[in-house]
Description:
Trefoil (Acidic Fibroblast Growth Factor, subunit A), 34 strands
Amino acid sequence: MDEVEWTPRQPKPEDLRVGLISWAGSYLTYEPYNHMITADSTVGRVWVDAPVPCLGECGFLLHFQDGCYHLETSTHFFLSHLDRLASQPSSQTAFHMQVRPGGLVALSDGEGGMLYAQGPRLLLALGSNPHRGEEWFILQRCPAWVSLRSKTRKFLSVIYDVEIYAASEHLTPMSLFQFESENGSPILQLRSANGFYLAQRRHRTVVANGYHLESDTFFRMHWNCGRIILQSPNGRFLGIAPNSLLIANASIPGPNEEFGIRLANRPFLALRGRYGYVGTSPEHDLMQCNMDQPSCIHLLPCRQGIYHFQAQCGSFWSITSFGTFRPWGKFALNFCIELQGSNLLTVLAPNGFYMRSDRSGTLLADSEDITKECIWEF
C-alpha cells in the first residue's frame, strides 16, 4: 500500500473551543526541549525556558480573527512578528496556524517565517530555517497548579524527596501541586513538582511517591468557603501532626484539616458557562454570561481561597441587591473560588450565593446549591 502523506490544515474556530485546545488558559510546550513558553513583559520578549507550566507567565489566550490567531499573554500583551510583545492586536500579531494530530501546532507569518526558539537564551522569534521540527509546539489546556496552606499559614512542601511538611513560610517550587480531577467528580489527585503524586502510606503518613492511577493517590475533596478538606482512601482526613508532618488521621474534620488553596499559575480567569463566556457588552451595564469572547478577570488574592475580582480597566467587580454584577466598582469584594475539576470551578459571591449563568444572558449570584449553571470552565 502506498504511504499516505499527511497534509497540514488550518484549524477551524470550533477546533479551539473544544477538547484540549481552548480559547482561554492555553500553554505551548516546545517539542525539542519539552519546555514551556513564557512571556516577560518587563523586557517585551518571549522565552522557551519553563520546565513545568506552574508559572502565570506560561498561560495564553488565543483569539481567532479573520482567519488568523493572536496570542495574548497573561499581562495582556500580544506575541508579534517583530520579536517584541505588542500592546494591541494588529496585522503584526496575526499568525497562521498549522495543526497535526496530538495537539501539535506551528505558527507562521504567512510569508515564509516560522516561529521557533533561537539563540542560547532560546528567544522565541520568527525565522526561515528551523531544523528537525523546531517549529512544532504542543498546544494544551493550561493545568491548574495550586499551593496549600495549613491553619498556621505554612505552605505544604515536599521535603527530603518525598515527605510533606507544613513548615515553609515562603512559596517554593516544591510547594506547588498540579490539581488533577475528572470534571464533575469529587475525587482528586495532587501531583508534586517531583513528578510523583501524593499518596497515603503506612502509619497514615502522606508522602509524594505515588504513581498515576495508584489507588492510594485518590483523595475526596470537600469545600468550606474556599478552603479545601481532603479525605484519604481510608476515610481519614488529612491534617498536620505536631511535628508539622502531613498525615491522614482525623475521623472528623476540623480547622486543622482545612487548607487554604490558591491558584499558582492563573493570574486571571476567562470563564465559560452553559450559555457562553462571562464578559461585558456595550448594550448592557451588567455582566453577561452569553458572550462570544471572554472579558479577563484579574485575580487579586487576599486570603487563601478568597480573591478580589478586578476588571481589565482596573476597577473591581461590584454586586447589586438583585445578585447581578457590574465591572466598575470602587471597592474590592471577596469571592471564593472552589475547584470542581481540572478546569472547572464554582464561585461563591460576596452575598453568600453561588454565581451562575442565566438563560437571559445576565450573570447572577442567587443559587444556594451547585447546579449545572454554577459550573464554569476556566
